[in-house]
Amino acid sequence: MEDRAKQERGSSVIDAHIHLDLYEPSELHPMLEEAFRSGVEAVVAVSMHMASCKANEELARQYPGRVHPAYGFHPEQELPGDDERELLLDGIRARHERGEAFAIGEVGLPYYMRTEREAAGESFDETPYMEWLESFVKLAAELDRPIVLHAVYEDADKACDLLQRHGVRKAHFHWFKGSAETIARMIASGYYVSITPDVAYESEIIELVERYPMGRLMAETDGPWPFEGPYSGRMTIPGMARDAAADIARIKGLALEEAEAILLRNTKEFYGIV
Q1: How many helices (DSSP H) and strands (DSSP E) are in the chain?
Q2: Can you give the C-alpha Rg of the chain in angstroms?
Q3: Of 172, 181, 97, which is closest to residue 136 (Cα–Cα)?
Q4: What is the DSSP secondary structure assignment for residue 76, as one 8-state letter?
Q5: What is the value of pTM for the model shown?
Q6: Element (H, E) at 8
Q7: In this predicted structure, what is the pLDDT of residue 172?
Q8: What are the backbone angles phi and psi of residue 222, rounded to the nearest 5°?
Q9: Which member of 66, 68, 92, 179 has the lowest number of beta carbons within 10 Å of its beta carbon?
Q10: pLDDT at 8 over 70
Q11: By the 8 A CB rule, do 238 and 18 touch?
């Protein structure tokens, strides 16, 4: 009966980017249990900071094979001291030595914080953020681990420079926006992008799906970030990755089952999810 129900729902999906630790504890576990019952095979839980890394590590223990953690420091916030960066890097190395399954992320550059401050006439020194990002890029290369990037518009080119300088093989740009030239560069480099539910109504995301090879796409929610359009007023849940998959299928002219199968395969191969 379970296999038949799964077939009626279509293929499984993986939410390739979600902030589980930002949900209310009372919402989180019922949400995950319902997601896994309804055809979400797994989620990639990205981290914001040290406490977030620890929370995602615990969730990965509670949901083995279902919650795939990524450890890092989100760039759209003030940086702590370099001591905390070294603790983060050492903790990631220790997990690697224990043979744990994980990725590095979410890391990147503070595009929105930088541009907001510059628009307000304030100065912004990006140098320490570049140093933090390079530390994580070097670690991804050293450990040969996937890296999840928050890097949009011109910041994506800065990230690409670092990835290529250090020979990172597996790079995933989440909720990406950027120029046609940057998109072409990312495609040529074999980098992946994940598509959010706003592909239902955002022309910039629709154009990205049109341009990007199907074999390098994934579906994500970035939950609990809220969306507009058909999602207005709704809590963002992992199952919305299937909605993104349906819109990807429509844009690419594929049957839903075929699109879901490709997206699932892409995500599993990229993250080593078995």
Answers
A1: 11, 8
A2: 18
A3: 172
A4: S
A5: 0.94
A6: helix 2-9
A7: 98
A8: 55, 25
A9: 179
A10: no
A11: yes
